[in-house]
Amino acid sequence: MRRVLAVHFVPCALFVTCVYALVRAGSFVGRSHWSVALPSDPAATAGALLVMGACSAVLAMLLYPFQVRAVRVWEGYWDRWPFTAGLAGVLTELQRRRGRTLRRRTEALSARDPNSHRVAADAARRLAARPFEDDLLPTALGNALRAGELSAGERYGLATLTSWPRIHMQISDRLAAALRSARTALDAAVNLCWSFLGSGTVAAVALYDEPGARWLPLMALVLITVAYKGAVTAAQAYAGLMHIVYDLHRFDLLEALHHPLPDQENEAETFWRVSAFFAGRPSSRLPYDHRDGPLASGLHSSSTGDAHGSTDA
After folding, report:
1. Nearest to 7, CA basis, from 181, 127, 128, 129
2. Which residues contact residue 293 at a Cβ distance below 8 angstroms, ignoring those fewer than 6 apart?
3. Residues 6+ apart with CB under 8 A from 74
4. DSSP string computed for 181-203
5. pLDDT tens readout for residues 175-212
6. Quick one: pLDDT at residue 312?
7. Are 177 and 3 in contact (CB under 8 A)?
8. What is the DSSP string of 6-72?
9. What are the structural domain ranges in the chain?
10. Which of 62, 105, 184, 223 is least crowded, fewest Cβ atoms below 10 Å from its Cβ?
11. CB 191 within 8 Å of CB 8
12. Is 77 within 8 Å of 136 (Cβ atoms)?
C-alpha cells in the first residue's frame, strides 16, 4: 500500500492538482484569477478533493503498466527515434569525457596538497558507480543502474540480466526489504520527475502570456532536478544491493537448481555454464545433486516405502 501511494498515487495527484488549479483560475482562457482557484465552502472542497482523488487514482492505474518504460526513458534508452538517438550519442560522449576527468583525478595525487587524496578517493568512488566506457548510457541514472546490471553477477561469471529474476527469489527477508525500499525510492523519484515535467509543461502553456507567473514553470524545472538527483542516488543504492545479493546468495541459486557447489577454482566456469543455460545456449550439461533438496527427501521416502513393501512381501 505504501508503495502504491508513494510511487503511483502521489505523483499523479500532484499533476492533477496543478491542472485543476489552472483550470479553476481560468489560466487557459485568459488572465489567471488565483482567488477563485480554491473552493469557497466545505462542501465544494470535499467535492473537489473527491474528483481530484478519483482522477488521480484512474491516472495512476492507467500508467501503472508503463512503470518500467517510465524509468527506461530517464535511463537514456532513446535509440528508437532518430532525433533522440542522435542526442543520446552526444550525451554519451559527455558521460565518457566526465569519466575520463574522474580517472585523471584519481591519478592526480600530490604530496604537497593534503586535499588531493580526498579528491582522488571521491573520484574513485564515483568511478566505481559507473559502467565501463563501452557500456555507458547518456544519463547519470542509466549509468547508475547499468553499473549494477552489468557487474553484480559478472564478477562471479553469472550474467546479471538473465540470472537476476532467479536469484532474486532466493534472497533473505531483510535483503528483500532493503531492495524494495531502494526500488520504491527510485520509482517514486522517477515518477515525480514525470509529474513535475507534466505540470511544468501545462503551466508553461497556460501562463505563456503572464510574465509574472512564469516562475511556476521554472520552479518545476528545479523540482525535476531535485527529483532526478534523488533517483540517481536511489539507483546507486539499488545497484549496490544487487552486488550484495550475488555476494551472499549466488550459491543458493545453484542449490535451488540442484547443481553441485563448485570450489574456488571452477566457480567462474560453473556460473558461466549456468548463464549460458539461462540464455538458451547451453554449452554442456551441468551435473545434478539432489542429496540435500526437497526432491531428495521425496526420493528417500519412496525408496524407504519400497524397501518396507518388499520386506512385507
Report:
1. 181
2. 255, 258
3. 139, 141, 142, 190, 193, 228, 231
4. HHHHHHHHHHHHHHHHHHHHHHH
5. 999 999 999 999 999 999 999 999 999 999 998 888 88
6. 41
7. no
8. IIIIHHHHHHHHHHHHHHHTTTTTSS--GGGSS-SSHHHHHHHHHHHHHHHHHHHHHHGGGHHHHHH
9. 2-76+139-256, 77-138, 267-306
10. 62
11. yes
12. no
Cell numbers at residue 83, please? 532525433
Helix axis angle for 140-149 and 67-75, nearest 10°, is: 110
Provide the angle, in degrees to the nearest 10, between the axes of the packed helices 173-206 and 215-256. Answer: 160
Distance CA 56, CA 198 (A): 14
Q: Shortest CA distance to 194 belongs to which of 165, 228, 166?
A: 228
Angle at 101 between CA 95 and CA 104, to 5 degrees: 145
Cell of 158: 553469472
Per-residue three-class SS string for 93-141: HHHHHHHHHHHHHHHCCCCCCCCHHHHHHHHHHHHHCCCCHHHCCCCHH
- Distance between CA atoms of residues 247 and 282, nearest Å: 24
